[in-house]
Design a protein that fits this description.
The chain is mostly helical and 281 residues long. The chain has helices at residues 3-12, 25-38, 44-65, 94-97, 111-135, 141-147, 160-164, 168-192, 200-223, 225-230, 233-252, 265-268, and strands at residues 16-20, 71-75, 107-108, 257-258. It has a two-stranded antiparallel ribbon. It has a two-stranded antiparallel sheet with strand order 3-4.
């Protein structure tokens, strides 16, 4: 397209501007390349078709820009259309006022709170389990040996007398399992309790132990068959509730730390610029 043609059209069409002419060759080229590579994992005919489309699109695209770029004259209206709406008023969304920040807490407990809660809950659970052993007349070592039964040979767990006897190896295994599990659940409590800050005892002392008991009940026959056969579920739930109540109270009494939700978006995004940070935050 020559410069004289552009000037001539601008003289005959004073209300028009020169714009690049529309073309479909770029999308045809992209489709051809996609078929070209798609045929590598499907069929050679697909690659052949893709190559033909890509070559044709490449030639057509170059002809649109060489030796002169293809243009067209587009009529421009001087009048600016008025923006109107059928809703002149702002309708408030009721759901926006009902959103609760409990799902995105502004304050959380530190890791140390979960550790303290797990240790305190483990002590409460151990006392409850030993109380069960004493009241059932099986001895305080009976629940300890039941907990470690999955790691012991069947000859050591086939009778109540053997499960009631003291064994240092069994005590070490049971203490390790109990301590690790209690610490993990304590850390979980530290993460969950900020979701329900007004009722930590309800979540930690009742809801979580019942859910945990249901999960253990469904898999205990696979993990520890001896414990599954001899367990007293009433005392098991009581020990879980004791853990939950004590751990929940200990965690809830720890001092919370603020999350980054209170900070400006620029700070949370890691942006550094003068005037964007509030040093008092």
């Amino acid at each position: 397209m020559s410069v004289e043609w552009v000037k001539q059209n601008q003289e005959t069409m004073p209300d028009a501007i020169e714009m690049p002419a529309p073309t479909a060759w770029p999308i045809v080229l992209a489709f051809g390349i996609a078929l070209l590579f798609g045929g590598l994992v499907t069929n050679a005919a697909v690659s052949i078709l893709g190559g033909i489309l890509a070559a044709a699109a490449g030639v057509g695209w170059f002809r649109d820009v060489l030796p002169f770029e293809a243009h067209e004259m587009v009529t421009v209206t001087a009048e600016v259309p008025a923006v109107t709406t059928s809703r002149p008023g702002v309708i408030p969304i009721a759901a926006a006022r009902e959103l609760r920040r409990a799902f995105l807490p502004l304050e959380i407990y530190p890791v140390s709170a979960g550790v303290k809660g797990g240790l305190a809950g483990s002590a409460a659970m151990a006392v409850t389990a030993m109380l069960y052993g004493a009241l059932s007349r099986n001895g305080i070592w009976y629940p300890v040996n039941l907990l470690a039964a999955g790691f012991l040979p069947p000859a050591m767990t086939d009778t109540v007398a053997k499960l009631s006897a003291f064994n240092p190896n069994t005590l070490l295994i049971a203490a390790t399992i109990h301590l690790i599990t209690s610490l993990l659940v304590g850390l979980l409590y530290g993460a969950m309790l900020p979701m329900l800050p007004r009722r930590p005892a309800l979540l930690g002392g009742l809801v979580a132990p019942l859910m945990w008991t249901g999960l253990i009940h469904s898999i205990l026959g696979i993990v520890n068959p001896v414990l599954n056969q001899r367990i007293d579920w009433f005392w098991f739930v009581a020990s879980q509730v004791a853990f939950g109540v004590v751990a929940g109270i200990v965690v809830a009494r720890q001092e919370r730390i603020r999350t980054w939700q209170r900070l400006p978006l620029s700070v949370r995004s890691g942006m550094e610029a003068t005037g964007m940070r509030d040093d008092n935050t």
